[in-house]
Amino acid sequence: MKIKDTDLCLKIGDRAPAFTLYSDAKKSFALSEATAIGPVLLLFFPAAFTSTCTTELNEVNNDLDSYSGATIVGISTDTPFTLAEYSKANELKFSLVSDHDAVVCGLYGSKYEHNFTGMKLDRIAKRSAFVIDKTGIVRYAEVLENASQVPDLTAIQSILGSL
What we know:
six-stranded mixed beta sheet, 163 residues, two-stranded antiparallel sheet, globular, alpha+beta, 5 helices, Glutaredoxin
């Protein structure tokens, strides 16, 4: 089930929450630095090395030209070291950063807040996509409750093409 924009804590037209996250090499990704260059696509995903996450990120990776030169970054609560291995295994050409404590996921309304079949998931990212324009405004927001679905990549490409 897709969550409509009106159901999100963060809505289209809102200022995107600022953050800095890190990769395994302690390389930082600061949203403010990236948006100063141009639009940014944030792809929150639940877990490295899982089938739907791999399908989604490889689809984006294999079609980078369709994202109008946007900075693309994948965000999950996996450790930086896991993300480095995952990126290497999939030959990803965009950065993956760790939100290990799920703080940024929470700011974007992109983390589970409940237990599911006895498992505590409040530190796991929901599959989500946000397009942030160069002024720091959210231009696209999609948060999926069903982790087996992927964001509407065609709609994302269209929004990026219009910026």
